[in-house]
From TrEMBL:
Residues 4-168, 184-359 form the EngA-type G domain. GTP 1 binds at residues 10-17, 57-61, 120-123. NCBIfam families: GTPase_EngA, small_GTP. Gene3D superfamilies: 3.30.300.20, P-loop containing nucleotide triphosphate hydrolases. Transmembrane segments: none annotated. This is GTPase Der. The gene is der. SUPFAM superfamilies: P-loop containing nucleoside triphosphate hydrolases (SSF52540). Keywords: GTP-binding, Nucleotide-binding, Repeat, Ribosome biogenesis. Associates with the 50S ribosomal subunit. It comes from Sphingomonas rosea.
Length: 450
């Protein structure tokens, strides 16, 4: 399904390209103090507090002969607005509404595309008079922004969300990890010589990967299409990850970078441990990296068929994981043997269950009913006698599930309370050991006492 399109329009030099660059997260569009730098429409993939959409930068709108270059640029802008789901009309808050702004406003009112008015360059409390003046454009309540400094993005999020968020158009079956048409992206990672390539070969039922007693045979991340019990899997074998201090060879450094890219692209990551060596600090570092990247994690003890003192080894590794991975509890710990194939079905079954939670999207109604009950049962503290008021929560994306909580004085909310919300959320919606994201946001109030 194509992503919704937001077109940024306005007269020259109001900061359209600066806002475009901020929303796409990199300096793509040229920015200069001179007007007219942008000529063609430029489209980029934008993200704002988890909302994902396409953002379109347009040329400055000028009142010129249609046959002239500025006139032809204007036609491009008009086409952009008609193509878009919503137009973001930027004015310069410091200059207020100009005659050209009024002309653009008249044109936009005649179009069918919804319009959001944003008063840009409103750093701090500057430009409030310009924002209020923008009410005269007749296009609804303007919001204050500073594209250069990143201020006002929460208000922009709330204004764009009704036009950009398409939860009703993303049926659950499209996100269902049991859909046999969507392969699960599964990366096998671990220290050198943990048996990753042997495990991949056993899964495939063929000697697809080179294996041997030497550590570091695999250098590139190899992606392979496979099926398990009728479900498609994109299986990725990766190079072993050693301690950073030991990685000196340029080729090994490139291999490490390739493995990290494989983690970034995966949905579920299997961290393979060597049962004959137990759990090492490097294993915990790899596991933490996977969790920080927001990927679902399964930990598998390989070479279980030759492990000594199996029961005490398993319990010791489990206890060490609970202590070393405090940021995510109950990460699945399974035992496998790449040599015999024992435990592989259980490993794949756990991976598909985790993937389902990783793709989970909770409806706004369900989410806020849980949220109200959780806050009522355990209200947030009141630092210095001043209440922290949590208003509502929304899920802004899945893969992994990511949420934004809106309220007042949320910067004073203790980390322990945030953990309480995450743990309660995980339990209420059966999200299992899936990394969750929770961001706290408070709308900026220009009348707050500093």
């Amino acid at each position: 399904m194509p992503q919704p399109i937001v077109a940024i329009v306005g007269r020259p030099n109001v900061g359209k390209s600066t806002l475009f660059n901020r929303l796409v997260g990199k300096r793509v569009a040229l920015v200069d103090d001179r007007p007219g730098v942008t000529r063609d429409r430029r489209v980029g993939d934008a993200q704002l507090l988890g909302l994902e959409f396409q953002i379109m930068d347009t040329a400055g709108f000028e009142d010129e002969d249609p046959a002239s270059l500025p006139g032809r640029m204007r036609r491009q802008t008009e086409a952009a607005v008609r193509e878009a789901d919503v137009a973001l009309f930027l004015i310069d808050a410091r200059e207020g509404v100009t005659p050209l702004d009024e002309e653009i406003g008249r044109w936009l009112r005649a179009e069918d595309t919804p319009v959001i008015v944003a008063a840009n360059k409103a750093e701090g409390r500057q430009g409030e008079s310009g924002r209020l003046e923008a009410f005269s454009l007749g296009l609804g309540e303007p919001i204050a922004l500073s594209a250069e400094h990143g201020e006002g993005l929460v208000d922009l999020f709330e204004s764009l969300r009704p036009f950009v968020e398409r939860e009703e158009e993303e049926p659950a079956e499209e996100l269902d990890s049991d859909d046999p048409m969507r392969p699960m992206h599964l990366a096998i990672v671990g220290r050198p010589n943990a048996g990753k390539s042997t495990l991949v070969n056993r899964m495939l039922g063929e000697d697809r990967m080179i294996t041997g007693p030497e550590a570091g045979i695999t250098r590139d991340s190899i992606s392979l299409d496979w099926e398990w019990q009728g479900r498609k899997v994109k299986l990725v074998d990766t190079a072993g990850l050693r301690k950073r201090a030991k990685v000196e060879d340029k080729l090994e450094k490139l291999s490490v970078m390739d493995t990290r890219r494989a983690i970034d692209m995966a949905e579920v990551v299997v961290l393979l441990l060597d049962a004959t060596r137990g759990l090492e600090v490097q294993d915990l570092k790899i596991a933490s990296q996977v969790i920080e990247e927001g990927r679902a994690l399964v930990i598998a003890l390989n070479k279980w068929d030759v492990a000594e003192h199996a029961s005490s080894l398993f319990n010791g590794v489990k206890a060490a994981l609970e202590e070393g991975l405090s940021q995510l509890k109950d990460v699945p710990l399974l035992t496998v043997s790449a040599a015999t194939g024992k435990g592989i079905d259980q490993l794949l079954g756990a991976a598909f269950v985790l993937r389902e939670g990783w793709n989970r999207r909770v409806s706004t109604g369900e989410l806020n009913r849980w949220f109200e009950a959780a806050v009522e049962q355990n209200p947030p503290p009141a630092p210095s006698g001043k209440r922290i008021k949590l208003r509502y929560i929304t899920q802004v994306k899945a893969r992994p599930p990511s949420f934004v909580v809106f309220g007042t004085r949320v910067d004073k909310l203790p980390e322990s309370y945030r953990r309480y919300l995450l743990n309660s959320l995980r339990k209420a919606f059966d999200l299992g050991a899936v990394p969750l994201r929770m961001t706290l946001r408070a709308p900026k109030n220009p009348f707050d006492e500093k």
